[in-house]
Write a structure and sequence with these properties.
By secondary structure, this protein is of the alpha/beta class. The chain has 19 helices and 17 strands. β11, α12 and β12 form a beta-alpha-beta unit. α3 runs parallel beside α4, α11 runs parallel beside α12 and α18 crosses α19.
Length: 480
């Protein structure tokens, strides 16, 4: 059996470390045909990778590229430099095994990353079926040029026409992450990632998610999801599970069925989720989520100004956002809110509308993350808008430096000033550039949680510290 090494190149640990779900799913899918080893670079940061390659001597090496940059206009971090210097180049210098790159970050900029890394092959979109087909071609010495969603050194920019084909999700096994990587470093601040579907039927103007996974939902069986959680709990004991779908409660009814399946198994997990869409929320959904074991959610309205909501094509209304805000308070469900400022149609007045909504409806114990500007990605409606308005030029690279869209009425300097005013008014509101806590604050929060036996989400503990520090600063200012 030939050996395959899969490498997670993600280096980001804040606000909390994310385990490599995609690579682990790929490893589980390929293990009947290949001996698969997974290297997780989140904590090791490439330090022992060369030694592993020399000892394992893989026949093929796959690198997963999750993040290109940090999507923060104020402090853009370009991750590709370290991905190449700390992971890819050292391996290329000591191994003749074919280098295959993939992952969601790669899938957005495949041509640029193929050229930058010098990889032999690239897989665009989800990798299970395509990766297996590629390896089988390489095993037999056959050309891989016609494989769907595969790039080669000598055919960059030409992907086979069948690139829209995706697997039914029931064909993909459980990730079994803890069997592929050392899960211990994730237990304190991290999560066990669970995906409930692939694809997205929404049409938000800035999002490239449908381009990566397809525009139609492929839903997992709710009972399979509950069983995966139960089996992971049997192996790991107490751990937090996070549903990593971009929108957990889309399409309507699927989230409710997942909660019912978990409740039926009587397993009592600790759950959190990304991306609650305001339009498909109800007291029934929240009641089921609380009984299933949810301890934290993320809500992503992007704006509370009706004009901006419409321009972003969010498919929900201010009434929907108000309802979900009231539900989070009614159920006392800790929530992180995400707002994007500066999109098409944003004005001083619309920023004020969102600010007023935050003050009226959002629990002061819940965190509000404020992003200034919208990252422009290829093949999105926002790219077309930016071209039409002259924000970017035809042929301009969207890869690096990272381009951002700002409404003409809220240019970056003006918007930054307004967001800082919101931050100074509400202690729970943070511009994205200030959202990553320092290592010292993280340690202080860990100590506080241990001393006081706190079980609240970490962000609430960090907000307590920030509020106390802000109060002390004001007191000292008054004394001087």
């Amino acid at each position: 059996m030939k050996r395959l090494l899969l490498v997670n190149t993600n280096l980001e640990k804040y606000p909390y470390p994310i385990p490599p779900l995609g690579i682990c799913l790929l490893a589980s899918y390929l293990k009947p045909w290949y001996e698969v080893n997974v290297y997780d670079g989140v904590f090791d940061e490439g330090r022992t990778l060369v030694d592993l390659v020399q000892a394992y001597d893989p026949d093929y090496i796959g690198f997963s590229i999750r993040n290109i940059d940090d999507v923060v206009a104020d402090k853009t971090i370009f991750y590709m430099d370290r991905i190449i210097s700390d992971f890819i180049r050292p391996v290329q210098q000591i191994s003749k095994a074919p280098i295959i790159v993939g992952g969601c970050g790669f899938s957005v900029f495949p041509d640029e990353i193929m050229e930058l890394t010098g990889a032999d092959y690239g897989v665009v979109g989800e990798g299970e079926e395509v990766f297996l087909s590629l390896l089988r071609c390489l095993d037999k010495g056959k050309p891989a040029v016609l494989l769907p969603r595969v790039l080669m050194k000598d055919n960059v920019g030409r992907i086979a026409a069948s690139h829209k084909r995706y697997l039914p999700y029931h064909s993909i096994p459980f990730s079994e992450m803890d069997r592929h990587i050392d899960f211990m470093p994730y237990r304190q601040r991290g999560v066990f990632s669970i995906q409930t579907k692939r694809g997205c039927a929404l049409k938000c103007i800035y999002c490239n998610y449908p381009g990566i996974e397809g525009k139609k939902y492929r839903l997992r069986d709710p009972h399979d999801i509950a069983r995966e959680i139960e089996e992971a709990m049997d192996r790991l004991g107490k751990v937090t599970f996070e549903f990593v779908d971009s929108t957990f409660n889309e399409p309507a009814g699927h989230a409710e069925d997942i909660c019912r399946a978990i409740i039926q198994r009587k397993i009592h997990p600790q759950l959190r989720t990304m991306g609650i869409n305001p339009r498909n929320t109800s007291s029934e959904l929240f009641d089921l989520m609380m009984h299933a074991g949810f301890r934290q959610i993320d809500v992503t309205p992007d704006s509370a100004a009706p004009t901006v909501i419409k321009n972003l094509k969010k498919r929900f209304t201010l009434e929907d956002i108000t309802r979900v805000a009231l539900l989070t308070r009614m159920y006392d469900l800790p929530t992180m809110w995400f707002f994007l400022f500066g999109g098409p149609g944003e004005t001083v007045e619309t920023v004020a509308q969102t600010r007023n909504f935050i003050g009226l409806y959002i629990n002061e114990e819940d965190m509000v993350l404020m992003h200034a500007g919208l990252r422009i990605y290829p093949n999105t409606p926002l790219e077309k808008i930016a071209l039409k308005e002259g924000v970017i030029q035809s042929g301009e690279s969207l890869f690096y430096p990272s381009p951002y869209y700002f409404s003409a009425d809220t240019p970056k300097k003006r918007l930054d000033k307004m967001l800082k005013e919101i931050r100074d008014t509400f202690h729970n509101c943070l511009p994205a550039a200030e959202s990553s806590p320092s290592p010292e604050m993280i340690q202080k929060a860990l100590n506080m949680r241990k001393e006081k036996g706190l079980t609240e989400p970490m962000f609430r503990t960090l907000l307590r510290i920030r509020k106390d520090e802000g109060r002390r600063t004001k007191d000292e200012g008054r004394r001087t």
